[in-house]
Amino acid sequence: MTAEWSIQEVARLTGTTSRTLRHYGDKGLLTPTSTGGNGQRYYDQQALVRLQQILLLRGLGLGLSAIAETLDGQHDTVTALNRHLRLLRREQERLSRQVASIRTTIRKLEGGEPLMAEEVLDGFDHTRYEEEVSQRWGREAYEKGDRWWRSLSAEEKAGFRQQGLDIARDFVAARENGEMADGVVAQDVARRHVEWLGITTEPSRDYVIGLGEMYVADPRFGENYAPEGMDPTPYAEYVRDVLKVYAERNL
């Protein structure tokens, strides 16, 4: 008899929630192997391997729609896993460099030694996404974004990041103040958000609506729009609803 694990067991083993696993099922990403008479969902070995791939790709920053395309387009699971493993090893190497960099910075600051820029910034390189972006959206997409980012001064890069942080903060404030999704304040934040997106791309109606859906589907993105330590889902859903109203009215 083929071994199967209940949805609660899988949630516990992966550190996720039954709600998240059901969401994957609703999106067609992870179909239960069987369902008990009480509606309990069960997953076999093949389903666990697929879930492993989903979690790997989420950890690399892909949204659920992109993950679905990747999994549906692969024909050899082992080949796909080897590709994911290469990406993870590259990320592991980057994190190791960051740890070493921070340790060096602490040691030199405590000892009053001069800092070297190469040591302080080692591992903090946006090009770590080069292979991933090139695979998902094409080499041209990566090169275009890379040229734009490299053309910015350090001050401009910091300003771009700060704009994003300010917009996220104002989305949180609007929600906590009880502002409706179609309210004047919320819609003004949405306008700023779309203008901010427009710095690097041409945000169409479908793009903005799809981006809002991605914020809800992938907690890695939704967390950017929630106070630290809070469940990101209701905040991401609010941003999605606000952006949808704005896109339908203005794009």
From TrEMBL:
SUPFAM superfamilies: Antibiotic binding domain of TipA-like multidrug resistance regulators, Putative DNA-binding domain. Pfam families: MerR_1, TipAS. Residues 78-105 form a coiled coil. One of its GO terms (molecular function) is DNA binding. Keywords: Coiled coil, DNA-binding, Repressor, Transcription, Transcription regulation. It comes from the Bacteria. Residues 4-73 form the HTH merR-type domain. The keyword Signal does not apply. This is DNA-binding transcriptional MerR regulator. It comes from Kineosporia succinea.
